[in-house]
Design a protein that fits this description.
Number of domains: 2
CATH class of the largest domain: Alpha Beta
Radius of gyration: 25 Å
Structural class: alpha/beta
Bound molecules: 3-methyl-2-oxobutanoic acid, zinc ion
Length: 388
């Protein structure tokens, strides 16, 4: 079978921007939208047009300048929301309305004080309203992760019949295990008669740290779109991280799934998003964290210096990261120390390194990290004592 494309639906500017403190103005959103387009995302969810005049303006301005990606606006299953989203997307070369409603019993009862039949009708109606503005309509079954699969299948079938071209199956609360989420997608693929007329999409939250695993499980089971954000930003614990799904699919090419993302842009874009949203990236974040390509324990450093592949499955340049780093701490070893001295122009022999290593350890026990200036002082003292 030929490899299948996974469409990347980026929601950094919508779900990501919902993070407290991450709000963006129109100029900032435009800058990030252009960077996302250059990265190669297929769909940019630019905002929630009815939520504020500023967000309407952002979606509208982004629609005017984005040429290759589809621009998407969010709405609830409410006529006015959909009308405003349609207006905001008026200038888009390719515009998508993303509308939907909660389908889990918890949402149906607690949020809407309603019942399954009525919610199904509202879902269908929302898709029909949206189709008045564009042929590209995505429906989201909010809290699909906790929705009964048989009812979910009925909703999915009905919204596809009403004209939805993509159906989003959000694990809104990040509740599912990867096998459960994968089985949910497989159930829909096997039990929705018209499923071939639409793309199923994964939108997984990270409340249990499973967002990426769940999205990949969804794709393995037949979903062809993944909704994600740069740096995994999003409500609460965040969304699936774009950089993670892209690299999982690259690393595991045997899955036969690929994206159009230009991976060397991942780290520069991660930094741009972090700076623009004023939201630091955790150092141990996969692919884009400051420590993603750092080696600090002696055992790892020794192996890495012999062959980088012993401890790195991705080359930093593949994802636009700086070169791998050998960090010196009290857990580091002689190979790493010799390597760092060599980088500073000091080629010490094995005997020298044995003596210097003892001095290094005494210093390292007093510091979090031993830097070049510390090494220079060590080298100077050592050479002076040797020449006496
Ligand atoms: O998490 C969610 O369910 C959402 C929907 C609005 C798609 O963000
Ligand atoms: Zn979400």
């Amino acid at each position: 079978m030929t490899d299948q494309k996974i469409f990347i639906f980026d929601t950094t500017l919508r779900d990501g921007e919902q993070v407290p403190g991450c709000k963006l103005n129109t100029k900032e959103k435009i800058e990030l939208a252009l960077a996302l387009e250059s990265l190669g995302v297929d769909i940019i969810e630019a905002g929630f047009p009815i939520s504020s005049p500023g967000d309407f303006e952002s979606v509208s301005e982004i629609s005017k300048i984005i040429k290759n990606a589809t621009v998407c606006g969010l709405s609830r299953a409410v006529e006015k929301d959909i009308e405003v989203a349609g207006l905001a997307l008026k200038h888009a070369k390719r515009g998508r309305i993303h509308t939907g409603i909660g389908t889990s019993d918890s949402h149906i009862k607690s949020k809407f004080n309603s019942n399954r039949e009525e919610i199904l009708l509202r879902a269908v109606q929302a898709v029909k309203w949206a189709r008045n503005y564009t042929d590209d309509v995505e429906f989201y079954a909010e809290d699909a992760g906790r929705t009964d699969n048989k009812y979910l299948a009925k909703v999915v079938e009905a919204v596809i019949a009403a004209g939805a071209t993509t159906v989003n199956i959000p694990d809104t609360t990040g509740y599912c295990l990867p096998n459960q989420y994968g089985e949910k997608i497989a159930f829909l693929k096997n039990n929705v008669s018209n499923v071939d007329k639409a793309i199923l999409s994964c939108h997984c939250h990270n409340d249990l740290g499973l967002a990426t695993a769940n999205s990949i499980a969804g794709a393995i089971n037949g979903a062809r779109q993944i909704e994600c954000t740069i740096n995994g930003l999003g409500e609460r614990a965040g969304n699936t991280a774009l950089e993670e799904v892209v690299m999982v699919l690259k690393q595991h090419a045997h899955l036969g799934l690929y994206t159009s993302i230009d991976a060397p842009q991942l780290n520069p874009l991660s930094r741009l998003v972090s700076e623009t949203m004023r939201m630091p990236v955790q150092p141990n974040k996969a692919i884009v964290g400051a420590n993603a390509f750092s080696h600090s324990s002696g055992i790892h450093q020794d192996g890495f210096l012999k062959d980088s592949q012993t401890y790195e499955i991705i080359r930093p340049e593949e994802v636009g990261a700086e070169t791998s780093k050998i960090v010196l701490t009290a857990r580091s070893g002689r190979s790493a120390l010799a390597y760092r001295f060599k980088n500073l122009g000091h080629e010490f022999n094995r005997n020298d390194i044995d003596i210097l290593y003892d001095q290094f350890l005494q210093l390292a026990d007093t510091l979090k990290e031993v830097h070049d200036n510390n090494l220079r002082s060590l080298a100077i003292q050592y050479l002076e004592s040797k020449n006496k």
